[in-house]
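Appendix B, Record 12. Input sequence as logged:
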Amino acid sequence: MKTDHERAFELFSKDLQQSPVVKSVQFKQITGLPFVYLWPDCTADQSVVEDQLKRSAAKAMKGKRLTLAMSYVRKSQTFYVYRVRFLVPQRKMFCCGNFCDDCIRFT
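Logged structural output:
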């Protein structure tokens, strides 16, 4: 069974892949952080790409208690790179090593 977080990321990726603004999209995990590589349509500039990212994220988060953390990383000649995370409120995001009862390792 998938969590809300996993389902949201799947919906986000499907919506981006079907978008007319984006020609191609690739998702990479680097040091545990999700990065989105976007190859936009020829007519789309950075603001249009960011709007599409926000719209896709809003569709994915609808009805769930998630928030979006998105930041622009860099631009190449042909693609944009963004770090996109869906954050779960009031939950630990890392193991502190104190053997807590609600440790992220046990979920």
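The first strand starts at residue 22 and ends at 30.
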